[in-house]
TrEMBL record:
It comes from the Bacteria. The keyword Ion transport does not apply. One of its GO terms (biological process) is regulation of DNA-templated transcription. Residues 3-117 form the Response regulatory domain. Signal peptide: none annotated. This is RteB, two-component system response regulator. Residues 332-359 form a coiled coil. The modification 4-aspartylphosphate is found at D52. It holds the Pfam family Response_reg. One of its GO terms (molecular function) is sequence-specific DNA binding. SMART domains: AAA (SM00382), REC (SM00448). Residues 149-378 form the Sigma-54 factor interaction domain. InterPro entries: AAA+_ATPase, AAA_lid_NorR, CheY-like_superfamily, Homeodomain-like_sf, HTH_Fis, P-loop_NTPase, Sig_transdc_resp-reg_receiver, Sigma_54_int. It comes from Indibacter alkaliphilus (strain CCUG 57479 / KCTC 22604 / LW1).
Length: 473
């Protein structure tokens, strides 16, 4: 049994989840307000918080940050509409346990709760007798237990060639790639193939470091260095000594932190905040960014001297849509993982789904694919995943992606056949388009009909009539 808090400004969702999860033996409390939810977290210990991404008073990312400070052991999962999935994935990078997409699927919620209960909270690393526990994320990459696999397409072969070439050296590396493309896994692979493989690998999301605490988190501090510094603490660079440190979204670091980082890179020494002695540090630095750092330098966002210190070797991770025949290789990998997680034996994907996956743009890359496959597996009862199990927005993505350079779906594609089942009558096409626009507005506003009506430029009564007319569930 888990102690669960549901924070959602939709009363129907709160009541639905409370009734359903209570019947499953869980202790559930609900609130429509983010502020009230945080007050409840201060008073009670919860195992899991299910929090709506968009609340009226506080947004999900801000609640996550507050919960991490109030109750670090409490896991938080984001509830979101499909249009916000990419943003929800970014929130996961900042510490959210997972996310679920509306409309909510009972088995998916139960699976999430089961994983939350059975996944131990990362314990801080003990550094030495005179230092307290650190909040740093230290991992020695387990062999054969990664979400990233190497494909056979030319893009994958070129990527692995570059990784294999730079891994045995001590070069600093800049990894460019879209969100979810696997930049951290590339950094882990470089570490695993280097002479530092038996030493710590520490991954840091620079976007999650607040300006006030970044220095303490990276360099560490001595007792009494500032208000609240009740004990000495080793920073993440100190903990990574001898190993590799991965700085994701490096351009998010503030200017003063960039100055301190430049000193560390040049002199290979660091000094804790409030300290009087320097400590020699031997750390290989790998950084990642989804924006061009040279352009960030031109904008004055990133120090030029620091850029040239890091720019000893550059790796560009191709987005999933550019991985050719490896797209289905990744899909099969995630299917196998999802089968193990959900205790299912789904053997593969239908031809229609394979065609769809090869045509889809995958804006969220590998993270998006992993979550779509996990979700679709919950809806699959047979031996293969069919189109009906794939989210509506993914199935019809090509239908609404009108780009001049878009070659479209091949005429012989099974997906094309599926989409061309639409009637050719102009009135029917217009009605279908109106229905799709209403569904999209409802999704984007998390089924809040008042907000959806405002977005569509109609009144609430008209929206209700059109929902009834188009038989929208």
């Amino acid at each position: 049994m888990a102690k669960i808090l549901v924070i959602d400004d939709n009363l129907d969702i709160c009541n639905l989840l409370k009734r359903f999860l209570t019947k499953k033996g869980h202790d559930v409390e609900t609130t429509l307000s983010g502020e009230t939810g945080l007050e409840m977290v201060k008073k009670e210990k919860f195992d899991l918080i299910l929090c709506d991404f968009k609340l009226r008073d506080i947004e999900g990312p801000d609640i996550l940050q507050a919960v991490k400070e109030i109750s670090p052991d409490t896991k938080l999962a984001i509830i979101t509409g499909y249009s916000d999935v990419r943003v929800a994935v970014e929130v996961m990078k900042k510490g959210a346990f997972d996310y679920v997409v509306k409309p909510l699927i009972p088995d998916e919620i139960l699976s999430l709760i089961d994983r939350a209960i059975n996944t131990p909270t990362e314990k801080p690393a003990v550094v030495s007798k005179d230092t307290k526990h650190s909040e740093s994320k230290i991992t020695k990459t387990p062999k054969g237990d990664t979400e990233y696999i190497w494909g056979k397409d030319s893009a994958s072969k070129n990527l692995f060639k570059e990784v294999s070439l730079v891994a045995p050296t001590n070069f600093s590396v800049i990894i460019y790639g879209e969100s979810g493309a696997g930049k951290e896994n590339i950094a882990r692979t470089i570490h695993d193939l280097s002479e530092r493989k038996d030493m710590p690998f520490i991954a840091i999301d620079c976007g999650a470091l607040t300006r006030d605490l970044a220095g303490s988190e990276l360099w560490g501090h001595e007792k009494g260095a500032f208000t609240g510094a009740l004990a000495s603490k080793a920073g993440q660079f100190e903990l990574a000594d001898g190993g590799t440190i991965f700085l994701d979204e490096i351009a998010n670091l503030s200017y003063d932190i960039q100055v301190g980082l430049l000193r560390l890179v040049q002199e290979k020494k660091l000094r804790r905040i409030g300290g009087v002695k320097d400590k020699n540090i031997d750390v290989r630095i790998i950084v990642a960014s989804n924006e061009n750092l040279k352009e960030a330098v031109a904008k004055g966002k990133f120090r030029e001297d620091l850029f040239y210190r890091f720019n000893e070797f550059t790796i560009n991770v191709p987005p999933l849509r550019k991985r050719g025949k490896d797209i289905m290789l990744f899909a099969s990998h995630f299917l196998e993982k999802a089968n193990q997680e959900l205790n299912k034996e789904v053997k593969g994907f239908s031809k229609e789904v394979s065609d769809l996956f090869n045509q889809y743009e995958w804006p969220g890359n590998l993270r998006e694919m992993r979550n779509i496959i996990r979700r679709s597996l919950l809806l699959t009862d047979g031996e293969e995943v069919g189109l009906t199990a794939i989210p509506h927005e993914v199935v019809h993505a090509q239908k609404f992606a009108f780009k001049e350079e878009d070659p479209g779906i091949p005429e012989n594609s099974h997906v094309a056949e599926h989409l061309q089942e639409e009637p050719a009558d102009l009135k029917v096409i217009a009605a279908n388009a109106e229905a799709e626009a209403i569904k999209k507005a409802l999704l984007e506003n998390q089924y809040n009909k008042t907000k959806a009506a405002k977005q569509l430029g109609i009144d609430r009564k008209t929206l209700f009539n059109k929902i009834k007319l188009h038989n929208i569930a």
